[in-house]
Specification:
This protein has helices spanning about 1-15, 50-85, 85-100, 105-115, 120-145, 150-155, 160-170, 175-195, 210-215, 225-250, 255-259. By secondary structure, the chain is mostly helical. It has one domain (about 50-259): Orthogonal Bundle (MetI-like fold). α8 (about 175-195) runs antiparallel to α10 (about 225-250). The longest helix is centred in the N-terminal third of the chain and has 37 residues, at about 50-85. The chain is elongated and about 75 Å long.
Length: about 260
């Protein structure tokens, strides 16, 4: 329900926002929550609720984009490495290990610093940082699948390698991949927001939640609602994806389902 709530917020937030999220009204700067502005106003007098609604699309879009890039590249690497084996497997998996050896957040900072600040570059950086998790899980699952009798039968019938991979092995590896996708979404949200907090992601006046937190830290004593609202939004979004991942783990694992 939380995930659906945030998806609906991202889809329809800009249309249901009560005020223009970019309109400045300096006479109402740092105003506390009221009937006209339910979550208060920021340091430039902009409505925080409207900015949170618009920022949901940016924050969630960044996380989804990075996860899709990571899942696409990681699944291909894991499948090819497991099916082909030999030298190619060693080379691909050692490259994955090299990426995995770097601290995730520092690697993302290095990539964004090389590419330059911006939402697209954050998506690419976080996607690269997340590839190893998908590659290793897919590699492990595909290794087990390629030894099954139906894969051996498909190979004996003359099916090509790509057909066996995409028709017979990948569908049976989807359960752990889907679980990994949902669990990694929470981590990706935190990394993306952290990069924006440091000024490497979304740039002003974009209402990205991490960027809103970065600005709000200067008003922690005088206007705590500026940091409380986007902080709670990030917290609930990460919690939503983690709860969904835990639920899918139980639903897609036969042993856990029986227990």
């Amino acid at each position: 329900m939380l995930v659906v709530f945030f998806l609906l917020m991202a889809a329809f937030g800009p249309w249901v926002a009560p005020h223009d999220p970019l309109k400045q009204q300096l006479d109402g700067a740092l105003a506390e929550p009221s009937w006209s502005h339910w979550l208060g106003r920021d340091e430039l007098g902009r409505d925080i609720l409207s900015r949170i609604l618009l920022g949901a699309r940016i924050s969630l879009g960044m996380a989804l984009g990075a996860s899709v890039i990571a899942a696409g590249a990681g699944v291909v690497v894991g499948l090819v490495a497991a099916y082909r084996g030999g030298v190619l497997e060693e080379v691909l998996m050692r490259l994955v290990d090299v990426i995995l050896a770097f601290p995730g957040f520092l690697l993302a900072i290095a990539v964004v610093s090389a590419l330059g600040p911006g939402i697209v570059n954050v998506v690419v950086a976080v996607g690269i940082n997340t590839i190893p998790g998908f590659a290793r899980i897919t590699h492990s699952a595909a290794h087990a699948m390629k030894e099954t009798e139906y894969v051996a039968a498909a190979r004996a019938l003359g099916n090509s390698g790509p057909r066996i991979l995409w028709r017979h092995i990948l569908p049976n590896c989807l359960a752990p991949i889907v679980v990994q996708f949902t669990l990694r979404m929470g981590t990706v949200v935190v990394i993306g927001s952290g990069l924006s907090f440091l000024g490497l992601g979304a740039q002003p006046p974009s209402p990205e939640w991490g960027a809103m937190l970065s600005t709000a830290r200067e008003y922690l004593r005088t206007a705590p609602h500026l940091s409380l609202v986007p902080g709670l939004a990030i917290l609930l979004l990460v919690l939503a994806w983690n709860l969904l991942g835990d639920g899918l783990t139980e639903a897609l694992n036969p042993k856990l389902s029986r227990s």
